[in-house]
C-alpha cells in the first residue's frame, strides 16, 4: 500500500506543472477590439493580447466570444478567439 501511495504522489507532483501550463478558456462579451494594438477587452475588464497573424472572425462590440489563453506574468496571451452564436 505504501508503494502505491508513494507512486501516486510522484505522479501527481510530476503532472501538476503540465496542467498549470495548459491553456485556459474564458467566455464573455466584447467591450473593445483594437486592431492597432492587437488587443481584445471583454466586458469584465480583462484584456487579451492577440497573437501575430490573428485572423479577425468579425469581432464587434457586444459579440459573445470564447477566448483560449495562456498567462505570461500578468498578461493574458490569447491563443484563439471564437464567436459564440
Distance between the termini: 51 Å
What strand line-up does the widest sheet have? 1-2-3-5-4
Helical segment tally? 1
In one word, what is the shape?
Answer: globular
Helix-strand topology string? HEEEEE
Q: How would you characterize the largest beta sheet?
A: 5 strands, mixed, barrel
Fraction of residues in H or I helices: 10-25%
Structural class computed from helices and strand pairing: alpha+beta
Strand content: 35-45%
Average pLDDT works out at 82
User: How many strand elements?
Assistant: 5
Regions with little confidence, pLDDT below 50 for 5+ residues: none
Gyration radius over CA: 18 Å
How does this structure look, described?
With 85 residues, the chain is of the alpha+beta class. It is 22% helix and 42% strand. It has one helix and five strands, in the order αβββββ. It has a five-stranded mixed β-barrel. The N and C termini lie far apart (51 Å). The model has no long low-confidence stretch (mean pLDDT 82). Pfam families: DUF1344. This is DUF1344 domain-containing protein. It comes from Shinella lacus. Keywords: Signal. InterPro entries: DUF1344.
Amino acid at each position: 500500500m505504501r508503494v502505491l501511495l508513494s507512486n501516486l504522489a510522484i505522479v501527481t507532483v510530476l503532472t501538476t506543472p503540465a496542467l498549470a501550463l495548459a491553456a485556459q478558456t474564458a467566455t464573455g462579451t466584447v467591450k473593445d477590439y483594437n486592431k492597432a494594438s492587437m488587443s481584445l477587452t471583454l466586458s469584465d475588464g480583462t484584456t487579451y493580447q492577440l497573437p501575430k497573424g490573428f485572423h479577425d472572425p468579425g469581432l464587434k462590440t457586444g459579440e459573445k466570444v470564447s477566448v483560449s489563453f495562456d498567462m505570461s506574468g500578468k498578461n493574458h496571451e490569447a491563443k484563439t478567439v471564437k464567436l459564440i452564436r
